[in-house]
Amino acid sequence: TEFGIDARLVLNATGPWTDHLRAMEDKAAAPSVRLSKGAHLVLRRTSPWKAALATPIDKYRITFALPWEDMLLLGTTDEEYEGDPREVSVTDSDVTQILDEAAFSVRDQQLSRDLITYSFAGLRVLPGGPGDTSKAKRETVVSEGPGGMLSVAGGKWTTFRHIGRTVIDKLSKLPGRPLTEDMEPMRSLPRMPLPGIANPQAVAHRLLVDGPAPGPRMAPDTARHLATHYGSLAFDIARLANEDPSLAERIHPDAPEIRAQIVYARDREWAETAEDVLRRRTTLTVRGLDTTEVRDDVAKLLADRPS
Ligand SMILES: Cc1cc2nc3c(=O)[nH]c(=O)nc-3n(C[C@H](O)[C@H](O)[C@H](O)COP(=O)(O)OP(=O)(O)OC[C@H]3O[C@@H](n4cnc5c(N)ncnc54)[C@H](O)[C@@H]3O)c2cc1C
After folding, report:
1. Per CATH, the architecture of 33-131 is what?
2. Taking 60 as the threshold, does the pLDDT of residue 214 lie above it?
3. What confidence category does residue 186 fall into, taking pLDDT thresholds of 50, 70 and 90?
4. How far is CA 270 from the centre of its chain?
5. Is 14 in the pocket of ligand 1 (CB under 6 A)?
6. Ligand 1 mean position to 15 CA, how many Å?
7. What is the pLDDT, as a whole number, of residue 237?
8. Residue 305: its pLDDT value, please?
9. Topology of 200-303 in CATH?
10. Ligand 1: does its nearest atom lie under 6 Å from the Cβ of 156?
């Protein structure tokens, strides 16, 4: 279906699809970015693990072995990608490469394929240019098309505020598009704290001490999980669990998440599908715990969305 939208400006922030959108505006647009595939593995741990290991593979690339929750995160690879972004996936040779490279610093018994609970691959968006993608700078690419579409791509999650400010500055300089008053506060974004920012230890302590009375106290692993994932917003989740004890129950017995997080994801985090909850808002899928039972439970709670 085709439809029109009136807008003062079209901002293209479609990551790996940036150049597809630019080609829709201008068929002759030269590519502005290159894509590099990165794959990761998540494994169950065979013993407690606290260290974050960064092992240099060559002059440019490092492989990581990081404690993540009570699991181990390994990777990443870095390989130029020219296919359809929708089709990016982890191949058997990615798995072999990641395990082989991890073996430089991790014991073999921790690197068995049976321990893998999840694998994922993504596409880094890098400035165009010659040479290996592993050597390319992780910079943001901003470009403007003949129809006035502004494209912004690349960079890092950790630089998103800087990227936002770059875009706002660019917008303020477009002819005939002065910075309006409602955009002005966005310039000070880098100084605004993130929602829920708080000391996780202090939040976990309060969750444990102020647990639902007279019901059972919150489990320490759940309190830690809520505090580190939501900061002070964890108190909103604890309130849901206090009001309805069935929401204080775990989603799966082997993970710290509680059912109140499903309701929170549904009502406050725009979760629409079981996958949104299990893969994107909680750790269940990555832990390999998104069983049929768990999916049915999530689907039931999502269907109960207040109108
Ligand atoms: C393997 C890997 C590891 C990384 N590790 C780190 C790290 O450790 N630290 C860090 O800071 N950064 C890391 N990054 C980089 C980080 O993921 C990116 O910088 C960030 O995701 C870029 O955000 P974005 O919003 O520009 O693009 P994206 O996150 O790619 O979002 C673009 C969105 O646009 C949507 N879209 C596409 N086409 C259309 C369309 N036509 N209409 C509407 N929507 C559309 C897509 O579905 C997608 O949701 C890593 C990236 C990869 C691939």
Report:
1. 2-Layer Sandwich (3.30)
2. no
3. low
4. 15
5. yes
6. 5
7. 96
8. 86
9. Helicase, Ruva Protein; domain 3 (1.10.8)
10. yes
Distance CA 22, CA 40 (A): 29
pLDDT band at 2 (very low <50, low <70, confident <90, very high): confident
DSSP states of 269-286 = S---SHHIIIIIISSTTT
Domain boundaries along the sequence of the chain: 11-24+135-191, 33-131, 200-303
Least confident of 17-31, 152-166, 184-198, 266-280: 184-198
Ligand 1 pocket, residue 15 CB under 6 Å:
yes
Residue nearest to atom 45 of ligand 1 (CA): 14
H-helix segments, the chain: 18-25, 92-102, 160-173, 200-209, 220-230, 234-243, 260-268, 274-275, 292-303
Q: Is 34 in the pocket of ligand 1 (CB under 6 A)?
A: no
Share of the chain above pLDDT 90, in %: 67
- Does pTM surpass 0.90? no
Mutate to test the pocket of ligand 1, among 17, 40, 77 (most ligand atoms within 8 A of CB): 17
